[in-house]
Design a protein that fits this description.
The longest helix has 32 residues, at 34-65. This protein is an alpha/beta fold. The two termini are 30 Å apart. The strands form 4 sheets. Strands 14, 18, 19, 20, 21, 23, 24, 25 and 26 form a 9-stranded mixed beta sheet that branches. Strand 23 (594-598) and strand 24 (605-609) form a beta hairpin. It has 3 domains: 2-313, polyphosphate kinase like (2-Layer Sandwich), CATH 3.30.1840.10; 332-492, 2-Layer Sandwich (Endonuclease, Chain A); 504-734, 2-Layer Sandwich (Endonuclease, Chain A), CATH 3.30.870. Helix 3 runs antiparallel to helix 4 and helix 11 runs parallel beside helix 12 (381-391). It is globular, with a radius of gyration of 28 Å. Helix content is 39%, strand content 21%.
Length: 738
């Protein structure tokens, strides 16, 4: 059994590392503007940090238990060994990429220099900056007399200092200095000289001024080596009944800061005896991912690299495209009452969402606003609009998810502020995460109570909406808005599960319905009918769903998968998945939307929503997938998918080997999906959607021709559906929420 599972699935951690390799490819791609490549190197570093804090930490916990023998694709200890090998290789590639970027910056007359390259004028500038901005933030810790190193902060950078005097060169003192990157920028731009621009790392600013820091000691030799500790970031939420849910989350966030070390990176130039001393005092061991690195760590700070140099070094700044159905200064509610509206972020503005909420906040006919909040901006216009709605007498309900990883503290602050202003705040659902992206406006109109809903694929975050490719649907469809209302009823009272006629809601009916749709495709393929699926997801991991896709492939169902991140399915394997093609697109915007298309015997089903095909999303989170009925919007989504599938610039082929080979179509026009989508939406704004129809036809051109369905084939199809459902579906109706 184990051998069969290993041959069918790719381990999720190994697949995720392949995704992060695609990010690193962007940093190495000479066709990407130089400063954007530097940002991608920062994203790669940030992703790696989070991977260790969460996934490696979880695997270590599983390995410690001892009786955990298998995770998807292998045993924990074996996967950890593979991770270590891949990480070391990626570390080498990222260091090489950094050197390439430094050289290319110098070709643009931009130089990153260290403490050994300063001329007299630059040296004076650096010392003055150090005295005014940096020194007040530094608190050196002398570590020689302590048996252990004081608790190092997660993700922070430290300089491990060795000082001595030439009179006694083997008599050392050792200290640690935390880089104050939470207070001071990581990069210092020096005055321009002769048309040349110079940048210095904060690390090297401190190195240059070490003599000032340790002036009380008699020393003339000072060396500094960068180190960094990554800790287990998973929350331990105990079952103490006397504490509130808010108190538990708050306590767990504080405990995270003292989590178990899962990775230690050090400057490989550090003397071996000094490294042994620090590692021993950290109580780390050989198997604890002790990784040699370069002079600098936390390349994630490259995400905030100074914007300098000529314009061609940066990505073109494209203004959001106005939505053709939303005239300026018109009531959003009036528009949505007449027709559904789909927004494409970041190609169109998230401000339409703010406008809808702002209008609801001041509209005297609006009774209430209900909203799920998972990750919001640090300074959130969304939350401020809800607060204004309260002040205008509206009933406001905010479902604030306290377990949104690494946003817990921010969400606790917003929850407290909303509560203080008079909003009703629901702190998620214990035991589950509320990951759905919904809001509901209830309004009193002539015909009675009317509801307006929004269902999205991304967070209500105006900052990330500029960087993430997402979709959001405004609708007044009575059955959809009724279903959204029932979701909020459940969130308010966890015993009221609700019955949903339109939305697919997890953990109740989503998995069952998806299984039913796939079963229909299998039955249709066996009956000689058109059968296909197009799935755009962030992650595809759930074993049951992957097994069902394999079964569909064997039956002849054609599948196109666009999976941005983790894909545990092996596409294109003879005898297993030869009818499945899979790609991943990594480009300037993060591909974040989830879109599902099922042939359904010619009566296509199209959904958008918040759920990936992971066990946690289908069984342990509150998620929602919404059907799309408006014909124009259906054309838009299928055109969107068609363009992404045609991408032959930023699309990589997802296969068994995880090699990240680019998808190349010899003889075909160059298609960079994100550029073409922007151009298409701009053209649709002025020229209508004739091109959308052509793209729709292009997307489905590989679907096999249908034969007429005979009576005997109908019987075969119905029996096939019943057989698959009986085999695969555990009915949610028999389950209770724990």
């Amino acid at each position: 059994m184990k051998k069969e599972i290993k041959s069918k699935f790719i381990n999720r951690e190994i697949s995720w590392l392949a995704f992060n390799e695609r990010v690193l490819q962007e940093a190495s791609d000479p066709t990407v503007p130089l400063l954007e490549r530097i940002k991608f190197l920062g994203i790669f570093s940030s992703n790696t940090d989070e991977f260790f804090r969460v996934r490696v930490a979880t695997l270590k916990r599983m390995a410690d238990i001892g009786d955990v023998k298998y995770v998807l694709g292998g045993k924990p200890n074996k996967i950890l060994a593979q991770i270590q090998e891949i990480i070391l290789e990626q570390r080498f590639k990222s260091d090489h990429t950094y050197e390439e970027l430094i050289n290319e910056l110098s070709n643009e007359k931009i130089y990153i220099i260290n403490e050994n390259n300063l001329n007299k004028t630059q040296g004076e500038f650096v010392r003055q900056y150090f005295q005014n901005r940096v020194r007040p933030t530094l608190v050196p810790i002398m570590i020689d007399s302590s048996p252990v190193v004081p608790a190092l902060k997660d993700k922070m950078i430290y300089l491990a200092i060795r000082i001595s005097h030439s009179d006694a060169p083997l008599k050392f003192r050792h200290a640690l200095i935390e880089l104050p990157t939470d207070q001071v920028q990581r990069f210092l731009v020096l005055p321009e000289v002769g048309g040349k621009q110079y940048i210095m790392w904060l690390d090297d600013v401190i190195r240059y001024c070490l003599d000032e820091i340790f002036s009380i000691f008699k020393v003339d030799t000072l060396h500094a080596y960068t180190i960094k500790l990554t800790r287990d970031a998973e929350l331990d939420i105990d079952d103490e009944v006397s504490e509130s849910y808010l108190q538990k989350i708050t306590k767990s966030v504080k405990q995270r800061k003292k989590g178990r070390p899962v990775r230690f990176i050090y400057d490989e130039a550090m003397p071996a005896d000094m490294l042994r001393q620090i590692v021993k005092k950290l109580s780390m061991h050989k198997g604890d991912n002790i990784i040699p690195g370069g002079r600098y760590h936390n390349f994630k700070d490259f995400m905030k690299f100074p914007k300098i140099g000529p314009p061609h070094l940066q990505m073109e700044n494209r203004p959001p495209i106005p939505h053709p159905d939303i005239p300026l200064n018109h009531s959003m509610i009036d528009i949505v009452r007449k027709k559904d509206i789909l927004l494409h972020y970041p190609y169109q503005s998230f401000n339409y969402v703010i406008d809808m909420l702002r209008e609801a906040a001041i509209d005297p006919q609006v009774i209430s606003i209900k909203m799920t909040l998972y990750r919001v901006a640090e300074t959130s216009n969304v939350v401020n609009t809800l607060i204004n709605a309260v002040k205008n007498g509206k009933q406001v309900t905010a479902v604030m998810e306290l377990q949104a990883r690494f946003d817990e503290e921010n969400n606790i602050l917003w929850a407290n502020q909303l509560r203080e202003e008079g909003a009703k705040v629901i702190l998620g659902v214990p035991g589950m995460k509320v990951h759905s992206k919904l809001f509901l406006i209830t309004r009193r109109e002539k015909e009675g109570i009317v509801r307006y809903a929004y269902v999205g694929t991304g967070n209500f975050n105006e900052m990330t909406s500029r960087l993430y490719s997402d979709h959001g649907l405004f609708t007044a469809h009575k059955q959809i808005t009724e279903d959204v209302s029932q979701v909020f009823n459940f969130l308010d009272n966890n015993t009221r599960r609700g019955t949903y006629r339109q939305l697919l809601v997890s953990p109740f009916y989503m998995r069952d319905t998806l299984v039913l749709y796939i079963a229909k495709e299998i039955a249709h393929a066996k009956a000689g009918l058109p059968a296909y699926m197009i799935l755009k997801l962030n992650s595809l991991v759930d074993e049951e769903m992957i097994d069902l896709l394999y079964e569909a492939s064997k039956a002849g169902v054609k599948m196109k998968l666009i999976i941005r991140g983790i894909c545990s399915l092996k596409a294109g394997v003879p005898g297993l998945s030869e009818n499945i093609e899979a790609i991943s697109i990594v480009d300037k915007y993060l591909e974040h939307s989830r879109i599902l298309v099922f042939c359904n015997g010619g009566d296509e089903k199209i959904y958008i929503g918040s759920a990936d095909w992971m066990t946690r999303n289908l069984d342990h989170r509150i998620e929602a997938l919404c059907p799309i009925y408006d014909k124009a919007i259906r054309r838009q989504l299928k055109a969107f998918l068609s363009i992404e599938w045609e991408d032959n610039v930023k699309a990589r082929i997802l296969g068994e080997t995880q090699e990240n080979n680019y998808k190349i179509n010899p003889g075909k026009a160059i298609v960079r999906a994100q550029d073409k989508i922007y151009a298409l939406l701009r053209d649709v704004q002025y020229n209508g959607d004739a091109e959308l129809k052509e793209l729709n036809r292009s997307l489905l051109k590989t679907v096999k021709t249908a034969s007429k369905e005979t009576t005997s084939k109908k019987v075969v199809r119905k029996k096939a559906v019943k057989k698959i459902i009986a085999k695969k579906v555990v009915r949610r109706k028999s389950r209770t929420i724990k």
